[in-house]
Write a structure and sequence with these properties.
Radius of gyration: 23 Å
Helix content: 55-70%
Oligomer: single chain
Strand content: under 5%
Shape: flat
Largest sheet: none
Distance between the termini: 60 Å
Number of helices: 4
C-alpha cells in the first residue's frame, strides 16, 4: 500500500511539473525573434529591424540624438538614484519620519517629470529625423537595447512602459 502511494504521488508530481514546463511555451510568437517581453526584431514596433529601413544619415542622427539624451539626463538619473537610496535608508530605520519621506518623494517626482520632459523632446526630434520609425508608448524605454521598445510586446503595438536604462 505504501509503495503504491509513493509511486502515484511521484507520477502526479512529474505530470504537474511537465505540464507547467509545456504551458510556459517559448514566449511571443507574433514576431520572428521575439523574446521574453523585449522587442527583438519587429520593425513596426521600433525594434532594431526598423533601423534597417532607415538611411545611414537617419541612423547616425538617431545615434547622436540618443547620446545627447543620455548626456543630458545623466545628472538627473544620478540624482534620482541618490534620492531613491535616501528614501530606502529612511524607510529602513526603526521610526521613519513621514515628513522627510514626503519631501524626498516630491523631489523624486520632480526629477521624474524633468526626465519625462527630456524623453518627450527626444521623441519629437527623433520623429523629425525618422518619421517612419514607430515611436509609440514604450519607445526606448525597455532594456532591449538601442531604439527598442520595452515591456511586454506582442508585435501588435501593445507595449508596456518598460523599465529603461535611460528612461528613469
Amino acid at each position: 500500500m505504501k509503495k503504491s502511494i509513493i509511486i502515484i504521488s511521484s507520477l502526479l508530481m512529474i505530470t504537474f511539473l511537465a505540464g507547467s514546463v509545456f504551458a510556459y511555451g517559448s514566449g511571443n510568437k507574433g514576431c520572428k525573434g521575439q523574446g521574453q517581453g523585449y522587442n527583438q526584431d519587429c520593425p513596426r514596433n521600433g525594434g532594431p529591424g526598423a533601423l534597417n529601413n532607415l538611411t545611414q544619415e537617419q541612423r547616425d542622427g538617431l545615434k547622436v540624438l540618443q547620446q545627447k539624451f543620455i548626456d543630458e539626463t545623466y545628472e538627473l538619473r544620478a540624482a534620482k538614484f541618490q534620492k531613491q537610496q535616501e528614501m530606502r535608508m529612511l524607510m529602513e530605520t526603526s521610526d521613519p519620519d513621514r515628513g522627510k519621506i514626503d519631501k524626498i518623494s516630491d523631489k523624486i517626482m520632480n526629477i521624474q517629470k524633468k526626465i519625462k520632459d527630456k524623453q518627450i523632446d527626444f521623441k519629437l526630434v527623433a520623429k523629425k529625423i525618422a518619421p517612419e520609425l514607430g515611436m509609440g508608448k514604450g519607445f526606448r524605454q525597455g532594456r532591449g537595447g538601442k531604439f527598442q521598445k520595452g515591456g511586454q510586446n506582442n508585435c501588435q503595438g501593445q507595449v508596456g512602459s518598460g523599465c529603461g536604462r535611460y528612461a528613469n
